[in-house]
Design goal:
four-stranded parallel β-sheet, ADP ribosylation factor like GTPase 15, globular, alpha/beta
Length: about 180
């Protein structure tokens, strides 16, 4: 190799070292994902997402007629790359049964069945909250979601670090899916 090429190589390495140490520049672009967030009225979807985006959950107004729009959820499924299902772990038996049926429908829906799911057992700060193990058993997640990619996590507005960790886990599942697509 000529002296000129060696000098150019060292200059380039010096440039890379300089950039790495001094001029980090903007961080690399993060991938964006289209997610659908579903759950029954009062499960805390809007409050959790508002708090996650550093907005005050105090100004959140419950969706009017939310029970009536459940039949339209599937209109939002197309193009989704992941699902966030929020359930009220402190809800009544009737509401928990309804949430269970809706989650089962979502897990089996043709547009969602191959997508990763983040299932958030919200309102863990309430005395009547069911544990993650109780939710997993009641919702029959082990047999129903076998072979699917899903995460069940406890959450509440009081523990944003746990919520952020849950979303990080979902992003990891989404990135795994991206890497699988590249390998194919």
């Amino acid at each position: 190799m000529s002296d000129l090429r060696i000098s150019e190589a060292f200059l380039y390495m010096d440039y890379l070292c300089f950039r790495a140490l001094c001029c980090k520049g903007p961080p690399p672009a993060r991938p964006e994902y289209d997610l659908v967030c579903i759950g029954l009225t009062g499960s805390g979807k809007t409050s959790l997402l508002s708090k996650l985006c550093s907005e005050s959950p105090d100004s959140v107004v419950s969706t009017t007629g939310a029970d009536n729009i459940r039949k339209y959820w599937s209109r939002y499924y197309q193009g989704s790359q992941g699902v966030i299902f929020v359930l009220d772990s402190a809800s009544s038996e009737d509401d928990l049964e309804t949430a269970r049926n809706e989650l089962h429908s979502a897990l089996q829906h043709p547009q969602l069945c191959t997508l990763p799911f983040l299932i958030l057992a919200n309102h863990q700060d309430k005395p009547a909250a069911r544990s993650v193990q109780e939710v997993k058993k009641y919702f029959e997640l082990e047999p129903l979601a076998r072979g699917k990619r899903w995460i069940l996590q406890p959450c509440s507005l009081d523990d944003m670090e746990a919520l952020k960790d849950s979303f990080s886990q979902l992003i990891n599942l989404l990135e795994e899916k991206d890497h699988e697509a590249v390998r194919m």
